[in-house]
Write a sequence for this structure.
């Protein structure tokens, strides 16, 4: 009987650990639009598509670096804002889950999840 209770308790602990990682994942989709559309999207220097697009970003304490480029326009670089993911609070009773969420970045989330960037034309010189 004690073995069954121990197994049940261990299972509950394992299933409820790292709640933010389990429930919200370590990546998040962010919508990026530009005016004009069709700008190349790079995340940390890696091409991810053209605007408008939903881009999967790795969560963490600091956002990833996004650069938009389009011929005839100045490039625009920004870092999406991250905030605390409230699902992480469930882990306050179980420290290993909190540590896992911190290590995977799941204890943070992107907010806002929509960015519309107005690209500025390059100054034309004759």
């Amino acid at each position: 009987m004690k073995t069954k209770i121990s197994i049940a308790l261990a299972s509950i602990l394992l299933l409820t650990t790292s709640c933010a990682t389990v429930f919200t994942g370590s990546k998040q989709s962010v919508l990026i639009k530009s005016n004009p559309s069709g700008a190349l999207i790079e995340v940390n220097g890696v091409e991810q598509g053209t605007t408008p697009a939903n881009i999967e970003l790795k969560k963490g304490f600091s956002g990833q670096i996004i650069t938009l480029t389009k011929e005839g326009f100045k490039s625009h670089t920004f870092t999406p804002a991250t905030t605390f993911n409230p699902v992480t609070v469930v882990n306050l009773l179980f420290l290993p889950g909190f540590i896992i969420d911190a290590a995977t970045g799941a204890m943070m989330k992107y907010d806002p999840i929509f960015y519309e960037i107005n690209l500025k034309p390059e100054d034309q010189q004759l």
